[in-house]
């Protein structure tokens, strides 16, 4: 290791399965690094819904468990075998354990070097957008290759991924049918590219979809809600439609017979981002596209609110209340 690094840092962990009471802000050892590792001092880290799945036990993890999935900051130490990064480099990366002042990460992993001129606001933007933008980019290219003229059903259309998907669908010339729980959220979705709007709290989603598509149904659905919308998506898809299921906001989808996909030749995919960025070439391709969209101002990352790291519990309450629009970010104490 290079330079003087503290031995103790502040982190956000969960120490059990349950409600918000299992979230703790506490002292934790700074990780030690070896040959090809980086030690990154985080400045901002993005809040994602997936953290609640670990807290509630939907996804297993060892306890105590440091939360977090993405961050941006500065390299403060590197292993002796690292040749592609230098101390002082500003980076954005996808990793677990980012709700921390320091994160250990492999230099050959999913980490991208940023311009030396990158300022704090830009760092925040990369921390806010990296994971969700790469999710949206890879899903619209590989989980379902969106084509011009497609009708796409988009749930949680005013969330972090949803607002990015709205923009990408518009860029690709597709018709985005946005579903959200309030008129305010739908107006934001429209501002970000949605063509058709459905208020799930007072409208029949399936009925509206069939009206919009003249009874045919949609080419694909990007559904991050899970249990509560599974049947709606199945019914809303047209013949040879593609069901992209990528979240459990309302709970896990119950077991079902695969034969139910046969009558309309439906394709059901359950993708995760990591399956699309597993090698360096894929990672570089998608991060280059992301940076290009940000630099050209073609993609806007809407940040709902920035919280101090110690207040993650408040951020968790907010994101799980379904009242937020866009992305939540934590600022890490320096």
From TrEMBL:
Pfam family, one: ADH_zinc_N
Signal peptide: none
Domain of life: Eukaryota
GO molecular function, one term: mRNA 3'-UTR AU-rich region binding
Keywords noted in UniProt: NADP, Oxidoreductase
Domain named Enoyl reductase (ER): residues: 18-330
Cross-referenced CDD domains: QOR2
Keyword Oxidoreductase: yes
GO CC annotation, single: cytosol
Claim: Oxidoreductase is one of the keywords in the record: yes
PANTHER family: QUINONE OXIDOREDUCTASE PIG3-RELATED, QUINONE OXIDOREDUCTASE-RELATED
Name assigned to this protein: Probable quinone oxidoreductase
Species for this entry: Saccharomyces mikatae IFO 1815
Gene: SMKI02G1530
